[in-house]
């Protein structure tokens, strides 16, 4: 079991080493300038998006998840972050078109920057990982379906939040104070 765990960590390291720092920095800058941040994804990509939205909320950002009952309409100075391995998810394409109509900014996290969503996005972070539809030659993965993409996205977006908040004093205390407390 330990050997499998270490192999997965090595695979994630290989993906992370191929990420483009300029893409991540530009993506982060757009997030930091947004009035509000919206996050969308389908399936497990949607779960990674919800985890990202939660961390942004803990950090004090005004953030919403597409499809939730309290999500308002997107406006000109807002940003929508879409997470899609294929870059061709139907519901995300519909949301992306609405973003364009509203004048908001579309940020995409994907393996496929030349996809339909990639052509609509204002900024894209390419994550060179395996998905259920795409199995790259490098890095090779022992993981099924989109596990490698999902895990890589989770780590990447956590790193984005850390980058956005690292200059703030006592961010851990601040985030802890924002954590849900109705239990």
TrEMBL record:
<dbReference type="Pfam" id="PF01380">
    <property type="entry name" value="SIS"/>
</dbReference>
<dbReference type="InterPro" id="IPR017552">
    <property type="entry name" value="PHI/rmpB"/>
</dbReference>
<keyword id="KW-0413">Isomerase</keyword>
<feature type="domain" description="SIS">
    <location>
        <begin position="27"/>
        <end position="170"/>
    </location>
</feature>
<dbReference type="GO" id="GO:0043800">
    <property type="term" value="F:6-phospho-3-hexuloisomerase activity"/>
</dbReference>
<protein>
    <submittedName>
        <fullName>6-phospho-3-hexuloisomerase</fullName>
        <ecNumber>5.3.1.27</ecNumber>
    </submittedName>
</protein>
<dbReference type="InterPro" id="IPR046348">
    <property type="entry name" value="SIS_dom_sf"/>
</dbReference>
<dbReference type="InterPro" id="IPR001347">
    <property type="entry name" value="SIS_dom"/>
</dbReference>
<comment type="similarity">
    <text>Belongs to the SIS family. PHI subfamily.</text>
</comment>
């Amino acid at each position: 079991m330990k050997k499998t765990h270490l192999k997965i960590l090595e695979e994630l390291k290989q993906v992370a080493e191929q990420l483009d720092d300029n893409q991540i920095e530009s993506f982060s800058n757009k997030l930091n300038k947004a009035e509000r941040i919206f996050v969308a994804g389908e399936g497990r990509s949607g779960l990674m998006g919800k985890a990202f939205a939660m961390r942004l909320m803990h950090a004090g950002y005004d953030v919403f998840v597409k499809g939730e009952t309290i999500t308002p309409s997107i406006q000109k100075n807002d940003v929508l972050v879409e997470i899609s391995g294929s870059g061709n998810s139907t519901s995300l394409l519909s949301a992306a078109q609405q973003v364009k109509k509203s004048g908001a900014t579309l940020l995409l996290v994907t393996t496929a920057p030349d996809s339909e969503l990639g052509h609509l996005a204002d900024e894209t972070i390419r994550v060179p990982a395996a998905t259920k539809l795409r199995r790259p030659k490098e890095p090779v993965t022992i993981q099924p379906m989109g596990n490698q993409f999902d895990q890589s996205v989770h780590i990447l977006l956590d790193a984005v939040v850390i980058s956005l908040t690292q200059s703030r004093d006592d961010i851990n205390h601040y985030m802890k104070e924002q954590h849900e407390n109705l239990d």
